[in-house]
Amino acid sequence: MADIAATPDLAASPVRELWRAFAANRAALAGAAIILLILLVALAAPLLAPHSPLLQDRALLLAPPGWTADGSAAHPLGTDDIGRDLLSRLIYGTRLSMLIGFMVVSLSLVIGVTLGLLSGFFGGLVDFLVMRAMDVILALPPLLLAIVVVAMLGPGLVEAMLAVSFVALPNLARLTRAAVLTELGKDYVTASRVAGAGALRLMLSTVLPNCLAPIIVTATMGFSDAILNAAALGFLGLGAQPPVPEWGSMLADSQSLIQRAWWVVTFPGLAILVTVLAFNLMGDGLRDALDPKLGPPTRP
Amino acid sequence: MLRLIVSRLALMVPALLGVVLLSFALIHLVPGDPIEVRRGERGIAPQELAILRHQMGLDRPLPVQLLDYVGQVARGDLGLSIATRRPVLEEFLTLFPATVELSLCAMLLAIAIGLPAGIVAATRRGSALDHGLMGAALTGYSMPIFWWGLLLILLFSVALGWTPVSGRISDLYDVPRITGFMLIDALFSSDEGAWISAVSHLVLPTIVLATYPLAMIARITRSAMLEVLSEDYIRTARAKGLSRARIVGVHALRNALIPIVTVIGLYAGTLLAGAILTETIFSWPGIGKWLVDSVARRDYPVLQGGVLLVAAIVMSVNLLVDLAYGALDPRVRRRS
C-alpha cells in the first residue's frame, strides 16, 4: 500500500515522464548535448571560423596543425593542398551536415509516413502496391540504390539529399503501416469511427499520434544514416561538389594525400564520426525511454 | 517446409519484376539519349542517330521496349559493357569471387568477435565490461567506414609499413586463376610467398568491411540474450543445477538465435552485393568497385545489369535466412 503513495504523481504528462526516462540515461544526454553544440557551431559558423572556408593561402599549402613543430598558429588544424584552412572548412561543414540531416529526415518522414498511413488504412491494392514498391527499394543495399538515383539525377548536394531520402522511405513506411495496423484494431478507433469521424480525421488525429513513438526513434536514427550516406556519396564524388566544404567530399580530396598529410585525412572523418555517434546515442536513449520493454537497467 | 519455400518464392516474383522495371527505367531516365551516351563525347550526326535508334529499337513505344527488355533479361542477356564491349554477365561472374571472398572473411570475423562480445555483455549486464563493449559497438556502428579504411591505411600501411595499400595480391606473383578465390588459387601456385601476400592484402579490407556488421551483431546478440535470460525456463534450468556455461551456451543462445540470424542474413546479402566503399578504398576488384566505376564512366548497361544481379543476390540470401528460421524454430515451420 505504501508503494502507491510513493509512486510519483500519476498525473505527470507523458512528455515529462519521457524526459525523466531520457534524462536518466547519461549517454543519451551526452548525445543530445553534442548535437546542441554542433547546432550552435553551425549557426555561429561565420563568427567561429578563423578564415573563409574557400580562401586559399598559396603561401601555406598543406601546413600541419598549429600545435606541431612546423605548424602555423593561424591554422589550428592545418591547411589542405590548396591552402584552405581546415578548421574553417570543418566549421562550415557542420552547416551542411545539419542541413542534410534535417532535409532528408523531413522529406523521408513526410513521404514515408504518408505511404505507411495510406497502406495501413486502405489495405487492398494500395497496400499491395506500396509494400511491393518498398520491397524493391529494400532489395538493393541503401548506398547502391542512392548511387543509382544519383546516376539518374546527376551528382550534387541536392541530388544526394533526394537520393538518401528515397533510400530511407521503406523503413518509415513499413513502421508506420505496422503501427497503424496495431492501432486500428483497438476500441478507441472503433469508437471514433462509430462517432462519425472521417477517414482523414481518423488517420491524422486519432491514429497517427498513437503511432509516433517508433517513428520518432527511427527519425532520430535517420539523422545519422542520412549524414553517413550523404558523406559516403560525397566521398565517392557523387554528392556535394568541390569547393563545397562537405565532410565526405573533403575526405575524397584527401585520399591522394594520405602519404603526406595525415591531418587532412583525420579531422573530417572525426567530425562525421562524432556527429553520427551523437545522434545514435540520442536515438538509443529515446528508444529506451519510449519503449519500456527494452528499458535501461536504471528503470524501476 | 516446402510450403514455406513456395510462399517465399511467390513473394519474390513481384519484387523481382519491380527491380527489372527499375533497371529499365534507369536507362530511360538518365540524362541524355542512350545512344548519345554510348557514343560519348564525340557527338553524332542526326541521320546516323535516327538509323541507330531504329536499329536498337529505341523508336518503338515504351511498353514494347519494356516487354522486349523483360524477355532479354529472362534469357540471361544483360547487354554489353560500353567500356569493355564484354557481356555484363560475364564481367560480373569474373569479379564476383573477389567480392565473395572479401565478404565471407568479413562476415566470419564479425561473427567470431561480435557473437561472444554480445553474450559476454549480456551475462555481465551493467558492468564496466558491458559498458565498454557496447560503447565500442556503438562507435563501430556510427563509423564512416571510408574514413576508417583510410585511418587503417594511414597507420598500418603508411606509418608501420605492415600491410599493402591496395589490390588482392602483389604484382610479383602470377597466380593462375582456378577458382577466382585468391586465397585458394594462391595455395595452388608454385610461388611460396603468394599465399602470404594474398592474406596480407586481405587483412585491412576484411577489418573495415567487418566493422559495421560486427557492431550490429554484438548489439543484437546482447539484447536478444537479455530477453531470453529473463525467461522462466532459464530460471528452471538454473534451479535444476545446470552449469552456467550450459545455460548460457545452450538454453539461452539457441533461443536468442533468431534475431541474430536475421541481422547476419541482412548483412550477408548487403556485403555480397558489393562492399562499395571498402572495395573503392582498397582498389579491390569486386562488384562494388565495378558498379561505382560504371557510374563514373557512364557505363549504364553495367549499372543496369549490375543492379538486377545484386537485387537477385540480396533476395536469394533473404530467402535462405527465411528458410533458416524454419530450421531454427519449429514454430515457424508449422505456422506456414
Describe this protein's structure:
The complex is a heterodimer of chains A (300) and B (336). Chain A is an all-alpha fold. The two termini of chain A are 17 Å apart. Chain B is built from 15 helices and no strands. Chain B is mainly α and 336 residues long. The chains are: A mainly alpha (300), B mainly alpha (336). At the A-B interface, α6, α7, α11, α12 and α13 of A face α1, α6, α7, α12 and α13 of B.
Can you tag this structure with a few keywords?
heterodimer, A: 300 residues, mainly alpha, 13 helices, disordered N terminus, B: 336 residues, MetI-like fold, 2 domains, 76% helix, 0% strand
Q: Compute the CA-based radius of gyration of chain B.
A: 24 Å
Q: What's the CATH superfamily of the largest domain in chain B, by name?
A: MetI-like
The general outline of chain A is elongated
Oligomer: heterodimer
Order of helices and strands of chain A: HHHHHHHHHHHHH
What is the helical fraction of chain B, as a range of percent?
A: over 70%
Number of helices of chain A: 13
Approximate strand percentage of chain A: under 5%
Question: Kindly state the mean pLDDT of chain A as a whole number?
Answer: 86
The helix tally of chain B amounts to 15
Poorly predicted parts of chain A:
1-7, 294-300
Distance between the amino and carboxyl termini of chain B:
8 Å
> How is the main sheet of chain A built?
none
Query: What structural class should be given to the helix and strand makeup of chain A?
Result: mainly alpha
Q: Tell me, rounded to a whole number, the average pLDDT of chain B.
A: 84
Do you know the CATH architecture of the largest domain in chain B? Orthogonal Bundle
Overall form of chain B: globular
- Overall strand count of chain B: 0
* Number of E strands of chain A: 0
Present the secondary structure layout:
The complex is a heterodimer of chains A (300) and B (336).
Chain A lengths: L1 H5 L7 H10 L2 H18 L1 H4 L37 H37 L1 H15 L3 H12 L3 H28 L2 H8 L4 H9 L4 H24 L11 H8 L7 H29 L10
Helix pairs in contact in A: 2-13, 3-5, 3-13, 5-6, 5-8, 5-11, 5-13, 6-8, 7-8, 8-11, 11-12, 11-13, 12-13
Chain B lengths: L1 H28 L4 H6 L6 H10 L6 H13 L13 H36 L4 H15 L2 H15 L22 H7 L5 H36 L2 H8 L4 H29 L3 H6 L5 H10 L3 H29 L1 H6 L1
